[in-house]
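Try this one yourself first.
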């Protein structure tokens, strides 16, 4: 009787049901880990992007100081190029790590990113 129960338990442990349950637990655990990592990523993307927007805004102001355009002028990437470099001639255009597209905007408005929440404060 006892022996019979034990062997049934052994068979149960080897069954596909147990493997299925283990797989479900593993998938659930993985999903939890990934979902916990996600907002973290988004937050660092956002911080990086806002830093870029501040950099673009700074370049716009330098451009305005130097070229004295009308106060509502809208600089192009080409206009900003000389002010986006870091001392050398190597110019790396700032890009959003979240894949957003930047709009420079005119001198009255802050540059914006197409990604929601990537807003210069
Ligand atoms: Zn962005």
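Now uncover the answer:
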């Amino acid at each position: 009787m006892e022996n019979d129960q034990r062997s049934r338990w052994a068979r149960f442990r080897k069954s596909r049901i147990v493997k299925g349950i283990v797989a479900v637990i593993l998938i659930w655990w993985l999903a939890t880990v990934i979902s916990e990592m996600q907002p973290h990523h988004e937050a660092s993307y956002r911080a990086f992007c806002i830093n870029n927007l501040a950099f673009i805004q700074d370049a716009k102001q330098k451009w305005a100081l130097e070229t004295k355009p009308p106060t509502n002028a809208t600089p192009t990437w080409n206009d900003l190029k000389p002010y986006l470099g870091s001392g050398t001639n190597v110019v790396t255009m700032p890009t959003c790590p979240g894949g957003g597209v930047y709009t420079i905007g005119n001198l009255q408005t802050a540059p914006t990113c197409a990604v929601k929440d990537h807003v210069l404060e």
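Discussion: The chain has a mean pLDDT of 87. Residues 5 and 47 are 59 Å apart (CA to CA).
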